[in-house]
Structure prediction request, 659 residues.
Amino acid sequence: MQEFVEFTLGGISDGVIYAAIGLSLVLIWRGTRVLNYAQGGMAMFTSYIALVIIDAGGSYWLGFVVALATGLVLGAVLERAVVRPTIGKPPLNAVIVTIGLLILIEGVAGIIFGSRNRSFPTPFSIVGAKIGTFDLGPGASPSAFFAAGAVLAAAVLLALLFRYTSVGLRMRASAFSGTVAQLMGVRVGRITTLGWALAGLIGALAGMLVTPQTFLYPNSMDSIFVLGFTAAVIGGLDSPVGAIVGGLILGVLLNYVTGYVGSNLPELAGLALLILVLMFRPSGLFASTATRQV
Amino acid sequence: MTQARNIGIAVVAAVLLLVLSSKLDSYRQYQLAQVAAMVIAVAGLTVLIGVSGQISIGHGAFMFVGGYTTAMLLMHLNWNLALVIVASAVVAGVAGAIMGIAAARLRGPYLAGATLMLAVALPAVAYQWQSVFGGDQGLNFVVNAPGFLGQNFQLTEWQAWVCCICAVIVMLLLANVLHSRVGRNWRALRDNDTAASLAGLNVGVLRVRAFIVSAACAGVAGALLGMTMLNVTPGAFTLALSIQLLTAVVLGGLGSLAGAVWGGIILVLVPPFLTDFAASHGLSSASASVPVVGYGLVLIVVMLAFPTGIQGAIRRLLGPVEPAAAAQVSAMARRWPLLRKPAAKPATTDGTDDISSIGVDEGRN
Prediction:
């Protein structure tokens, strides 16, 4: 019983990270029909920026805010500079460009920051809470609560933005149909850039939250990105809710498999889950429509 | 006609490669063998992505299957090398069939996600069943050059021979497949799968078939890669390998077998070149990262400036005729005779009697 609770809580605290990465991918996918393979690399880079500030004597929170701001700017700049020219070309072009970006960012990080593992601070304790003698494990630590709360807050803020603001309405219109939105006077180009910027911010948040567990090195976000991508695909790339649900399902499942079956098997379990979901729902659990343009 | 030409090209290529490999030192022979192995994998992937229109970011997984099949057959059963390579292709093809069946309904990013996860997940098998697959250390095995070549015959040259001959055979087979009905059907599927299925093609079967062919190629490549290194480890078949294959396909020129040759050469020769460049310019401390940066830049620049890759650029330089487009038109004409007249027009030489002869030949029923 104690194990079960521990694995579940641990799974949820891993799952919110996958959900955050998934959410950032969904934001970009809805706006531009591009999958940003560089999302993990960008999050790694912003975490390095935060570490530089913290090492230079700045507080954790200063590093946190600067990392998020860097993510925002990085997303916007990359969209304008290299992703925009691939829009309207075959989808593979954007895939290759974002993979190229990932490789470039990881290489640049290796040159600037070196490739050794760096430990990363947390603002809160990672010791799990106890109820009497009942140990809830690290999934119930203040640090994990902070991570879950931060991702939840980001998701709620995004939902509010989409639903209740004029910018959000324009973003939804652009995602629904770029041409129609443009005819109605929406500056679709700017909205697209804004979508990338917000995705960069959410990615940076995920990087800050997960890096204390993984250490920081140029490839540190690769496996997190793969799982976040898987979460988004499971949920359906069109659906922010799907990304969060997908992330939580994936996190909990992987923790059960690691805990009960074997520590080498979570990736295989993730593959099995993905294939199983896609066999019954080829566009993910929360896909909005089943129609396809031909 | 095409087949005779392809066989001619293949024979000439094989002879040239064998002569070339005897002139090289053993490190260059090793690199030649690696290029040949990579060309096979890239060619298989370019058929899947460029011809059948399905993406895979996980082809390293099929190389993993081929490599481990080779290692286990050589270690435990001591089969003949040619049989081992064929068996690796078959086992990888079966893995491809399973993945293809699971993925037949998926498209675009969903297929990308599933294959990406495959590339990450499969090497974990080697860690989980350590007694069989050797865990992190992998499996080591021995390959000897056959006795009739003499005592002093270098192993690296023998490896280069095997890899080059396999590459030539695979390319020949792929070229023939692409010119056959199957290749035409794949192109129809890629260009518009709804239209293809309305025209009576079984889209699902064709998709799975493309996965099988492509995975079998990757299996051969994995077998050859293992054979040149004399060991297989999970670390040799990471996600990075899968992504490199994808980038090589695009850099070489999507859907083009000649482009696959460029892609294979780039994969093997460019990273050491960039490392040497970095070292010679006093960047040694960061030299491990310089090729990475260079590679990323090349990918972005090539994709933005030359989206058709190296082979596309060569084609543009060599003349206005686009062989791929012309082949597509003639393939369409063969499949749908009603289209023959407009399709035949550009092919005819310019002359006044051509127009009348078309009218006479075809008639109007």
About this structure: Residues 2-238 of chain B form one domain.
